[in-house]
Design goal:
The complex is a heterotrimer of chains A (about 450), B (about 650) and C (about 300).
Chain A lengths: L1 E4 L2 H21 L2 H12 L1 H19 L3 E4 L16 E2 H5 L1 H5 L17 E2 L6 E2 L17 H31 L3 H4 L9 H22 L14 H37 L1 H16 L2 H18 L7 H36 L2 H8 L4 H9 L4 H25 L10 H12 L7 H28 L6
Antiparallel strand pairs in A: 1-2, 2-3, 4-5
Chain B lengths: L1 E12 L2 E12 L3 E5 L6 H9 L6 E10 L2 E2 L5 H7 L4 E4 L3 H4 L6 H12 L4 H14 L5 H4 L9 H13 L5 E5 L7 H18 L2 E6 L2 H7 L2 E6 L2 E7 H6 L4 H8 L39 H5 L4 E3 L5 E3 L28 E14 L4 E16 L4 E5 L6 H8 L7 E6 L2 E2 L5 H8 L2 E4 L13 H12 L6 H11 L16 H13 L5 E5 L7 H18 L2 E6 L2 H7 L2 E6 L2 E7 H6 L4 H9 L48 E2 L5 E2 L6
Parallel strand pairs in B: 3-8, 3-9, 6-7, 7-8, 15-20, 15-21, 18-19, 19-20
Antiparallel strand pairs in B: 1-2, 1-4, 4-5, 9-10, 10-12, 11-12, 13-14, 13-16, 16-17, 21-22, 22-24, 23-24
Chain C lengths: L1 H28 L3 H9 L6 H11 L15 H4 L2 H6 L16 H36 L1 H7 L1 H9 L2 H8 L8 H27 L2 H8 L4 H22 L10 H7 L4 H11 L2 H29 L1 H4 L2
Helix pairs in contact in C: 1-15, 2-3, 6-10, 8-10, 9-10, 10-12, 11-12, 12-15, 13-14
The chains are: A mainly alpha (about 450), B alpha/beta (about 650), C mainly alpha (about 300).
Amino acid sequence: MIQPVVLWSDALLFVLIAVIVALTLWARRQDALRAAWARVLKDGVAMAAATVLAVFVLIGLLDSLHYRARLPDQPGTTARYAVEVNSALDALLSDLRLRAEKTYSAPLATHLYAKEALENSTQREFPRLKHGGAHLGQDLSNREFDIAIRVSRGCAGGLVIWLLLATLWCRVRGLELMASLKVGAGGTASGAIFITLLPILLLFGIAISLGGGYHVFGTDKVGQDVLYLSLKSIRTGLLIGTLTTLVMLPVAVLLGILAGYVGGWVDDLIQYLYTTLSSIPGVLLIAAAVLMMQVIIDTHPQWFATSAERADARLLALCLILGMTSWTGVARLLRGETLKLRELEFVQAAQAFGVGRFAIMRRHILPNLMHIVLIALVMDFSGLVLAEAVLSYVGVGVDPSTISFGTMINTARMELAREPMVWWSLVAAFGFMFALVLAANLFADAVRDAFDPRSSV
Amino acid sequence: MSILAVKDLAIHIGAARPVDGISFDIAAGECYALLGESGCGKSMTALGIMRLLPAAAQVTGGAVGFEGGDLLALPESGMRDIRGGGIGMIFQEPATSLNPVLTVGRQISEALELHTALRGAAARARAAELLDQVGIPDPLRRLDEYPFQLSGGLRQRVMIACALAGEPRLLIADEPTTALDVTIQAQVLDLLDELRRKQGMALFLITHDLGVVARMADRVGVMYAGQLVEEAPREAFFAQPAHPYSVRLFAALPDAERRGGRLATIPGSVPAADVRHEGCRFVERCSEVMPECRSAPPSWRDVDGGQRVRCFLPGAAPAVAAEVGAGDTAMAAGSTPLLEVKDLQVHFPIRRGILQRAVGAVRAVDGMSLRLMPGRTLALVGESGCGKTTAGKAMLQLLRPTAGSVQLDGVELTTRSSNELRPLRAKMQMVFQDPFASLNPRLRIGDIIAEGMQALKVGAGDAAAKVGPLLEQVGLRADMVTRYPHEFSGGQRQRIAIARALAVNPQLLVCDEPTSALDVSVQAQILNLLSDLQRDLKLAYLFITHNIAVVDYLAHDVAVMYLGRVVERGTAEEVLRQPRHPYTKALLAAVPRVDGARSEVPKLAGDMPSPANPPAGCHFHPRCPLADESCRRAYPAETLFSATHAVRCIKAV
Amino acid sequence: MLAYIIRRLLYAIPILIGVNLLTFALFFVVNTPDDMARMQLGVKRVTPEAIQKWKAERGYDKPLVWNAAAAGSATLTDTIFFSKSVRMFAGDFGRADDGRDIAREIGQRMGPSLAIAVPTFVLGLFVAISFALLLVFFSGLFYIIGGQWLVSKVWHLVPISGYSGGLDAAKFLILPVIIGVVGGIGSSTRWYRTIFLEEITRDYVRTARAKGLPERVVLFRHVLRNALIPILTGVVVVIPTLFMGSLLTESFFGVPGLGSYTIDAINAQDFAVVRSMVFIGSVLYIVGLLLTDLSYTLADPRVRLQ
């Protein structure tokens, strides 16, 4: 029926997920790591943040299962597939995706935001939306009532699902329902998870119920549903936040440890390298690199079969550029820490046994730096999500056809100047980004507190 | 009339009770010593009295009477007048306890301005006077210096001057000399004693060192797991300690009389502060346990002469019978040396200027020679900064020497590349000072011990099988191989470090202050283990230490280092009983003795000079009481007093 | 100390050369001038003549690093590398695509940039430090209210919401400054607070309290003096880059400074301007590093007197 398409970024994302799963299994067997993660698991705020993050990741993963739909068979030809590449999320949200209006409309509106000349009339009026509130027919008086009904129906649905999940959990764990809601019950802060899940499920219920008849967050300039755009932006944000770190980490770890442990001219060279790179203002270096990348992509159109592939290549290149310009900070940090570790007595004990340089770096230095690597990884995430928005604003971010928080804000910026103001795109993009970044920051803080021996304050 | 009356003071940190109902009085002008091992709540008690506890800790009960008023009932502003004014306090680490970016004068005068009417020039003059009073030469110049420009001993004197600025009636000294070298410790203790006598100031001294107690205290309180277990006047305490814990503390002290024998140890460790106690706190480690010890906490019982004890045992606790050892563990001297070091030099270049050229060198080790026979223990003694640790590492080629020769079993090491050295590394191993830094926290014990066997291909193949027996050999259980270092106490970690070194069957073990981070009862366990291993495995030890008592207990030969060179060497008997070098004499005299005896040898003045710029001629002459013009001319050659006893001093007789 | 500063100055030279080589590689080796021309002119209506003309107008028609056709020293000087990269050291940045002299443009736009950046920087530093001190001083109280938590976490995000907040009064300098200050408060307060909290657990603070000093004096005389040293190193490095202006604030509020200049150049794909800004930014950053070293030696007696 369909032809699966695996974009490069999809493949990397799934590899990343596999690596995380493997690392989790490995960490379960390491006492020190398990103890640190257990501290994170017991932290109510951290688990609430993790729940929110998990929802975002789920949406992002759904959006990473790409396919091309099969076109209706013509007799006598082989199967043909659509040029357009869609994802599982697109399929789930096909209602939102396909029910486009002509141009702007406010959230839950029934009419367009711009006056138009109606047929058979010289007057300019706000025309009815094609989809938003279409089920109401001509009688708009019960719109408020309809919305209230839908909201309460959505709430009820969300509550029912939440209760089902909670009872199921308690059955499995053999706990009383109310007892499980206490923070710290059963070793992890499952209470925090469920308390966070409740509003999430309620919001989901309301969104689904309202989304069936209205544009919950309105529509943008070309009439696309803003809720749909916001959900699609999540994948872009997640990719930039994770793949960039993935590109940067091996370089940073290798060079940082080499500089710190080997010393001498190796240290001088690596220090020169990162001082030079970091002396160029970050945004400018990225801008310059992105401009050059754009030239390459534009002069080689034959490399890309579909526009989705081209946008994907540009996204990956952006991750690469962001990664290559941001490894310097982590490398510097790791170099300093390696210098301290090198003087510790257990490293000297290994030297007294004649253990080789690289074996010492692998066995004694690297494992004692992993907490810094992890902290850098989670702390950088939110910064990168924000950086994407800034870069897209400056005009050197993702491909303009890629839906991202940055492109949403960039286009919404123009609309703010309209009178009356079109505020909903911006608010939606900020709302989603705020939730993502706040959750990531809170989670990162908890991880840092659990892993960093010095942050006991 | 007591100046300080602590009554049932209790301090909690969450569920933990580091101080759990402690009561004692200090009379005006008296020196009261609070004695105990680390983690028993001594410092918490002092901070609780000053109301300077860390945020997590809280005083949950009791009263602190000072000159009639209750400090715990005072408002914070009232307490500030007491701090520095009524009660002064000095801390253990002079290196970190002074503000690094304020001048010495500023730090003293701010206390003066707070507690006296002196301001400006008058305060400055008084600050100089205080520096002079605490024995700092050239005080006017020192006023404008920063703490980092002073040596450790001078910094501690500045701390004392700060504390004296408000003319307190009570001085709390929290381990004031623990971070200092023994000759500097003697200076600071003398200073404290003199100040106390001159000014009639009471002194509340917190220490773990029985020698310091014997030197300073009028009365002693022994603290254990948050409570006092014994309180006595000094003479009574040192004549006949009453609590089994006190008795064992004495028995665990190494000294010459216990040579060849085993030291008494206290099994187990101090209970954690969050343990609830039904009966006596010492019950798990006591050798005299009776049924009632487990059911109810013992109350105070007066012995006599002001001595009282918290123990059910009638009369004083019996002395611990010294266990008989297998006699001296040394092999006969006279065979070929295992380790022969000649004119060893380790210089670190000092780089200056635009092009970072070497303009000089820190002469950490500057031509030292020594010889270690197989199966014997050579103690390398000296104060911090004399180069003894650097010398030890250079002998093992962990640092490459600048010049000189190191021969192990007749094989020259200094000319070999690191690959050529690898087969020889199994013969020589090292045990480090800090048991918390010497084990990789991310590796299991089994992997830590097997690392050397794998790297050096010793016991090919069955490295894992050998780990269990090794652990048992050092007194641990074989099933501990899968644990991680953080699950072990300091003493246990040091055992693991010893097992790691033993795994490759070395003949020479360089022990770099292996017990200096440990409490005295745990130190005894490690010293016993080392002498057992020497007897069984015929190991030779190069024992690097500053602790004369340990040297006296276990060394066969002694080399005394000063500023990168060995100034005196010989058998332990020769060096420790008939020292010839004035530095050795002063070093031995500076050690506070448990019997309270004072030495007639004059104390050393001043500090050790910098190894970057050693004095001309004999390095020791600026501090030497015997020095004259001839000492300034050339470094003295070795004078032999016997076949083994050599001294580098032209005045030695 | 003088030798130290001279040494740091000398070290800046290879770094500047490195930056120069990097920008050269990025702009002329990764993509040839032909590629740039094709992109600027649009792929469709491009002819070899148009490309040649475009290159000749901008001086990109020379060989990259070695002019075999020229004689004498011109084999090296009559090249793109020399005329476009090496001459940057002399302050010659060439012309922008619209024909204006870049160096002149930069000189003119520096003023407005500084007018925003300097007040933002000074005010921001002052507010953040006093705020962090307050947080440390009243830490107990703030924890109870939970305000501290919200402030650092939520204000971390504020730079973004600056877009929507400041629309109405874009022409006034005061608004971008306030937004810049508020936007920076979150992260810097958080950072300073960590430094203060670390400093306040040190032994010398306990000593100061044991002297009977009031908490205010302990904080301002002892803690602040020590904490300022790491803060200084983080802050001084930024000062020279103030000349570069703020990309977002300036472009958003339409201030004709260097920040908006850069953004306009990026959007117009004016490579000459972007290249110049990269170079100037690096020079200013390196000056910042030097100033940091200098201020460090002045502020910390341990460095000054050794």
